[in-house]
């Protein structure tokens, strides 16, 4: 069996050392969960994706943070599709079809952009938790939830950029992740956001595709339109196109490979 190939890709950017870095590991067979978690811990990126070709077509795709497996990840899906096309595992005109914990996800190319077909995640208002807002250190205009993440709207883009949450307190206050968002004041963008998930081992995610499945639905209600250009204003930063199509959300972004290699530790196959 060949050593597993592994790549590091900066997603939601066309410039190296910006956007959100993800590791993508191409497997020849299903791997043991504990082995994948160890690889993700070694990579020490917000997410490491594991891709394996499935009999009958398509690919299995799983995502791990350094500490846990997660059910949905946008930037590592974009990075995985990018790697499949770049390595010739898929022809450029072919769709990348992934079987995941969140169902089938599809990626396709549109010019220089990669588009992801993801489930929309409606946001419902919730009673603000004082400990959450105190941990974030912000004044909320709105507080809601997409069923997993907390979403907090603040009054301005400047407030999103300036937020300096107490990550220890935030980990206790939010069991999954927290999105902080505001209408954009920078020309060319509709809204901005940042994403904090210390409970998942991610203090701040540089660019978060999956959070935009909720952000798109939320801003569609406020702005009365369905297509957006969004900016995640983390220190690395990244740009996304977001189009809400009812129960599905189309996320667009670019990607660039910054390194490639192979794992010298043998794959431990799954016993299932």
Describe this structure in words.
This protein has 272 residues and is of the alpha+beta class. The chain has two domains: 125 residues, Diaminopimelate Epimerase, Chain A, domain 1 (Roll); 121 residues, Diaminopimelate Epimerase, Chain A, domain 1 (Roll). It is built from six helices and 18 strands. It has an 18-stranded mixed sheet that branches. It is globular. The two termini are 19 Å apart.
Question: Can you summarize this structure?
Answer:
The chain has helices at residues 33-43, 74-86, 130-136, 157-162, 167-173, 211-223, and strands at 5-11, 20-27, 47-53, 59-64, 69-70, 96-100, 103-110, 113-119, 124-125, 142-145, 150-153, 178-183, 191-197, 202-205, 227-232, 238-245, 248-253, 255-262. The chain is of the alpha+beta class and 272 residues long.
- Highest CATH level, the class of the largest domain: Alpha Beta
The percent range for strand residues is: 35-45%
Q: What is the structural class? A: alpha+beta
Instruction: Report the uncertain regions.
Output: none
Overall outline: globular
Q: State the helix count.
A: 6
The radius of gyration computed from the alpha-carbon positions, rounded to a whole number of angstroms, is 18 Å
Q: Supply the CATH architecture of the largest domain.
A: Roll
How many separate domains? 2
Query: What gap, in angstroms, lies between the N and C termini?
Result: 19 Å
Mean pLDDT over the full residue set: 96
Number of strands: 18
CATH topology of the largest domain: Diaminopimelate Epimerase, Chain A, domain 1
């Amino acid at each position: 069996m060949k050593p597993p190939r592994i790549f590091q890709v900066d997603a939601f950017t066309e410039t190296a050392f910006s956007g959100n870095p993800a590791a993508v590991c191409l497997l020849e067979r299903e791997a043991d969960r504990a082995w994948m978690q160890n690889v993700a811990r070694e990579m020490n990126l917000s997410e490491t994706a594991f891709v394996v070709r499935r009999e009958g077509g398509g690919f299995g795709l799983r995502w791990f943070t350094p500490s846990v497996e997660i059910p949905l990840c946008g930037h590592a899906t974009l990075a995985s599709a990018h790697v499949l096309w770049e390595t010739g595992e898929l022809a450029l005109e072919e769709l990348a079809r992934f079987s995941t914990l969140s169902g089938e996800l599809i990626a396709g190319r549109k010019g220089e952009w990669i588009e992801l077909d993801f489930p929309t995640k409606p946001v419902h208002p919730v009673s603000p938790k004082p400990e959450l807002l105190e941990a974030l250190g912000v004044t909320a205009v709105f507080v809601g939830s997409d069923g997993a993440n907390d979403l907090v709207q603040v009054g301005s883009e400047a407030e999103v950029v300036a937020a300096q949450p107490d990550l220890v307190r935030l980990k206790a206050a939010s069991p999954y992740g927290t999105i902080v968002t505001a209408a954009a004041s920078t020309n060319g963008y509709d809204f901005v956001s940042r994403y904090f998930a210390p409970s998942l081992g991610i203090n701040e995610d540089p660019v978060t595709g999956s959070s935009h499945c909720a952000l798109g639905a939320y801003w569609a209600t406020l702005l009365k339109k369905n297509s957006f250009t969004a900016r995640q204003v983390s220190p690395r930063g990244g740009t996304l196109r977001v189009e809400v199509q009812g129960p599905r959300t189309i996320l667009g972004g670019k990607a660039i490979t910054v390194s490639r290699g192979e794992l010298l530790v043998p794959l431990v196959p799954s016993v299932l």
